[in-house]
Structure prediction request, 231 residues.
Amino acid sequence: MDRKSARQDPNETDYGHDASVLVIGLGRFGSSLAATLDGLGRDVLAVERDPELIRAWTGRIPLVEADASNPDALDQLGARDFPIAVVGVGTSLEASVLITGNLVDIGTPLIWAKAISAEHGRILQRIGAHHVVYPEHDAGARVAHLVSGRMLDFIELEDGFTIVKMRPPKETHGFTVGEADIKRKYGVTVIGVKEPGQPFEYATAETRIDAGDTLILSGDTVLLEKFAARP
Prediction:
């Protein structure tokens, strides 16, 4: 049986919120990820080989100093016990590929890996990473949408489907969702209308939209951009 077929399909396993996570690399991406997981109460262990980064994060998150590109080092730190691993190393293509390959070899059920280019991402996928993320590219694309209109937040999921948070255009002020007829006119769906200082509530046709409100909408990215560009 070859290496790929011997590994468990991650789609067949439901990893709950208590699944332990191994984070390799404490650069900006890895350290932010590890600190957030730790703050959420997740069982997380960070792995870093740079002594300066180790000193910077000692006492702040659970960590160990080791070179994860060495298979023996992964064995010694108990990497096989982690159902989820994240490879946050991106600046060194060789190290990123070696670490990901080592995780594949030990049968890590779910591997996330950071890539800094499309070519890097394709290599990681070919050697067995289940998910490849492009933090710099994704952040740049997101900010581009935010600076170009009245959007407050922008999350593109897949196949052009997006969820945005934005200020309402003037033409909707003082009208209910039904009266504004946003779905028919612009092809986007109002999920919720949040008043300042009030909790989020799902929108109905009777929900009123005021100038100070925040709209949460979903739909095609292009259509949402057009709606957000309305005065």
About this structure: The chain has two domains: 3-133, 139-228. The chain is about 35% helix and 25% strand. The radius of gyration is 22 Å.
